[in-house]
Design goal:
By secondary structure, this protein is α+β, with helices and mostly antiparallel strands. The chain is 44% helix and 17% strand. It starts with a helix and ends with a strand.
Length: 607
């Protein structure tokens, strides 16, 4: 409350002074009121601009994004206005009060009427603009959802294609398209930390280096969970995590099903980053077989609180949520390997069963991934034919995001199809790399060594695909020793870059423009372009919608390996999910009929 008072204090002082003058029957002249409130306007404008620029600098955001332009122009116009009127303002501010009382009631009514009409007009204009932005585009989404057949595989593929097109950015779409859903206010960044009657176990501090240990202990579980989703730092009131997240919104939540460990009862637990602890879910003495099959010692189930990301990014939310989850799961895989355990990601699970066991509302929080942890080799099984697409009957209340999530859901018996998630070397002990990882948005402009580029590419693709074979990797070299400014295709099997096409002398400008004019892309030494092969994800055994989910998670896994490898090389890395899809594809020489660009990763020198 004290912050509100400080912010409103100048306005209260000005209004109080006017009220005091009116009470005395010596209301200031209209010219003097204009001068006083011009000063108040200047104060608030400078305060707003100062706080905005502070936030841009603090969060390493682009300073000259196009949507800041109107604010900068407003500052310049106001400065010019005040320069022309400075002498008159100063004269009126110094002018003594009128020598004789004026008719206070008449003066107050006149000024109140003028001020009221002005406030009403401004509020009406702002409200109209807000409502237009809120409502525009909903017809498109309604028709899109209505046209998606719930049973036919072809209809689900068509839904994926329509979703991707609708959530894609383009310059024409800035005018012709708008969010099709009002997501409401942002939910809290953490689930309730204090729930009456819930058992909460504090975890010991995580290990910060690879010194061996047992994953299937409270200490090992602590290390795994902290490096997957723990709080590694705080900045400007935001609790930053060990894995990156679009907009620092951190929609992912993680749950653990365990058999009995010393100091931790068997059952289902929710990881709470605040306080680094586990909260018990339910009273079941042993985990359900759907949550933890016999061949696994523990399982990690990942969900997403949709509105944390959706309230900012709208219909592009699902893209960011899935890629963010892939980042965190890569960390989990790296730590599991350090602790001598294996991790496999389940292809098929029944979202509704897991949601019921987790006691989550699927309208607010969707189940997205299940990772099984085991001490030795796992017998891989073929996908069981019992798995069927889930019926698309319920409206989750989150528009096309909910529709696509339902299209990817499965219903069936407890059968498992598992992908091994073997660790990929990222250039050093992954634990300190994860702990120190940050998204760096400021680069020095120094050229990147060709050997560093090769190391990054090897780390990104040094293992078979973990959940989807659809991800492709290209590189835009902007400042790499021995390479011209060009687009390159990475041939992982041959271990070499294949030229796609030169970017020209204005390469940096073009790359920055394609990334919504974000400086981090234009200033990088290299920008990696991750795309997904449309035919490959559409051929996923559990359907195109599930394959689309798998492909985005795989892209996040690859992106996090670039983060960790860059950290080991002393480079700055930043994932970029916001870009003009068509322009990014053109730069990388990608045919949208064959592949879709899903993620960019900018890398450069920071020291």
């Amino acid at each position: 409350m004290s912050k509100w008072l400080w912010i409103l204090f100048p306005a209260f002082v000005a209004l109080g002074w006017v009220g005091w003058c009116a009470w005395r029957g010596r209301l200031p002249s209209r010219a003097k009121l204009n001068a006083v409130f011009s000063v108040v306007l200047l104060l608030y404008l400078l305060l707003t601009a100062g706080l905005g620029l502070f936030w841009v600098s603090n969060q390493h955001l682009p300073v000259f994004d196009w949507h800041y332009l109107s604010g900068y122009v407003l500052l310049v116009v106001l400065a010019v206005h005040l320069a022309f009127n400075a002498r008159a303002l100063w004269r009126h501010l110094r002018a003594p009060p009128p020598p004789a009382p004026i008719a206070p009631a008449q003066g107050v009514r006149r000024h109140a009427l003028i001020g009221g009409l002005g406030a009403l007009g401004l509020s009406g204009a702002l409200g109209l603009g807000y409502l237009l932005g809120l409502r525009h585009g909903r017809t498109e989404v309604t028709l899109l959802v209505a046209g998606a057949g719930p049973d036919a595989a072809a209809d689900r593929l068509a839904l994926v294609e329509a979703f991707h097109a609708h959530s894609s950015h383009s310059r024409a779409g800035l005018i012709s398209k708008a969010p099709g859903l009002y997501w409401g206010l942002a939910p809290p960044p953490f689930k309730s930390a204090q729930t009456p009657g819930v058992t909460v176990v504090a975890l010991p501090p995580p290990a910060r280096s690879a010194t061996g240990g047992d994953l299937f202990s409270v200490e090992g579980l602590s290390t795994l969970l902290w490096h997957t989703a723990g709080i590694s730092a705080e900045s400007a009131g935001i609790a930053l995590r060990t894995a990156p997240s679009s907009g620092a919104l951190f929609s992912s939540e993680f749950y653990v099903a365990v058999r009995a460990l010393p100091g931790l009862a068997a059952g289902l637990w929710h990881y709470r980053p605040q306080g680094h602890g586990l909260a018990r879910i339910g009273t079941q003495a042993a985990p359900d077989a759907a949550m933890l099959p016999a061949e696994a010692h523990a399982a990690v189930i990942a969900t997403a609180v949709w509105r944390r990301t959706g309230q900012k990014y709208g219909d592009r939310c699902l893209r960011y949520v899935l890629a963010d989850l892939g980042h965190a799961l890569e960390n989990l895989c790296q730590v599991a390997a350090v602790l001598g355990a294996g991790a496999t990601l389940s292809d098929a699970f029944d979202e509704s069963v897991l949601a019921r066991l987790l006691q989550v509302d699927e309208r607010e929080e969707g189940v997205l991934a299940q990772v099984l942890l085991h001490a030795g080799p796992v017998q891989l099984r073929q996908l069981a034919p019992a798995w069927l697409p889930a019926p698309m009957t319920d409206d989750l209340g989150i528009g096309i995001t909910g529709t696509l999530h339902q299209a990817a859901a499965l219903r069936g018996a407890t059968q498992w199809a598992l992908h091994p998630m073997a660790a990929v070397p990222v250039g050093g002990d992954p634990l300190p790399l994860i702990a120190a990882r940050r998204s760096r948005r400021r680069f020095r402009g120094h050229p990147l060594a060709a050997s560093s580029l090769h190391a990054l590419l090897q780390a990104a693709t040094g293992a078979p695909a973990r959940v989807s074979a659809a991800v492709r990797l290209r590189a835009l070299s902007l400042a790499v020793e021995g390479l011209e400014a060009s687009a390159w295709r990475w041939n992982a099997a041959a271990g070499q870059l294949e030229p796609v096409g030169a970017l020209g002398t204005d390469a940096r400008r073009r790359v920055r423009a394609a990334a919504l004019d974000q400086e981090v892309a234009g200033d990088a030494a290299v920008v990696f372009v991750l795309s997904i092969d449309r035919a490959r994800f559409a051929a996923d055994p559990v359907g195109a919608a599930r394959g689309y989910r798998h492909a985005f998670i795989e892209a996040g896994l690859v992106g996090e390996r670039l983060y960790l490898a860059g950290q080991s090389l002393g480079l700055g890395v930043c994932g970029v999910g916001a870009f003009f899809d068509d322009e990014a594809a053109a730069l990388a020489g990608i045919d949208p009929a064959q592949e879709w660009v899903v993620h960019l990763v900018a890398v450069g020198a920071t020291g």
